[in-house]
Design brief:
Blueprint: H1 5-21, E1 34-38, E2 54-55, H2 57-68, E3 72-76, E4 85-86, H3 93-100, H4 102-109, E5 124-127, H5 133-136, H6 141-152, E6 156-160, E7 183-184, H7 189-194, H8 205-211, E8 215-216, E9 226-229, E10 232-235, H9 241-254
Parallel strand pairs: 1-3, 1-5, 2-4, 5-6, 6-10, 7-8
Antiparallel strand pairs: 9-10
Length: about 260
């Protein structure tokens, strides 16, 4: 049967419209140019009375790398607002520049509680370290949910030093732990012992990650060590922070 010219044109137009309006597959979607930094709100090392918080160089060094690559960065923290900072050293050009950056400080002061964050707006989440993360990251269900949603949507999850404490209880949509079956780096039990806090922290991070099914890959104390496993990027200590940012940029660019 021959189609009339008018009917043929209508069918062709309908097919074109359907092709243009169908939802993009995950591979067709362009990954967001926004990255979410998670920072601790906890300011004391157990019952020692010693101050702690988010370790500033583990924020500023990845910030430098991601901002230079064109990514926007927002902050989230368990309590919201400005987080306590630790490890501040303005002799470090990166930290000095971060503290002098009006936009960076404004965003840090206005960190949003995890429950108020839309995971769909971000292509990656990065958990900064600092001993405080050992107390408030693991049990924050809303924070864990953000990482799971970003990863399940094809995004990148990253953490450095004590930041992987935020990964311990992250479960994906399929019910498995995010770290299960993946290689990870984190502050080692040996490093914790070296700073004499192995009996102060609520748990040993490397041990907890292993119990969740991860393969912990340590390097020598204080040596840079960045591990990429699928879309999970983890670093062992402060010396690894810049490298974590660099690997994040590589994965995001490939998304």
């Amino acid at each position: 049967m021959k189609l009339s010219r008018e009917r043929f044109l209508k069918m062709a137009a309908a097919s074109l419209l359907a092709a243009c309006t169908k939802p993009a597959s995950r591979s067709e979607k362009k990954m967001s140019k926004k990255v979410l930094f998670a920072v601790t709100s906890h300011d004391k090392k157990g019952n020692t009375g010693e101050a702690t918080g988010a370790f500033l160089p583990e924020i500023s060094h990845p910030w430098d790398v991601l901002r230079a690559a064109g990514y926007e960065i927002d902050f989230t923290s368990p309590k919201g607002g400005r987080p306590p900072l630790d490890g501040v050293d303005e002799k470090d050009p990166s930290q000095k520049a971060f503290l002098a950056d009006a936009l960076a400080m404004k965003q840090l002061d206005a960190s949003v509680k995890p429950a108020d964050v839309d995971a769909a707006a971000y292509g990656a989440i990065f958990y900064a370290g600092g001993h405080g993360a050992m107390w408030d990251f693991p049990e924050d269900q809303a924070l864990a949910k953000l990482a799971a949603q970003i990863y399940d949507a094809g995004g990148v999850v990253a953490a450095v030093c004590h930041g992987p404490a935020g990964l311990v209880n992250v479960k994906l949509a399929n019910g498995t732990y995010l770290v299960a079956g993946k290689k990870v780096a984190a502050f080692t039990n040996e490093e914790e012992t070296a700073v004499k806090l192995e009996k102060v922290v609520p748990f040993l991070l490397a041990t907890a990650l292993t119990e969740r099914g991860a393969e912990h890959v340590p390097a020598a104390n204080w040596a840079p060590n960045v591990i990429v496993s699928e879309r999970l990027v983890t670093g062992q200590n402060p010396a690894s922070a810049k490298g974590v940012g660099e690997r994040m940029v590589e994965l995001l660019a490939a998304s």
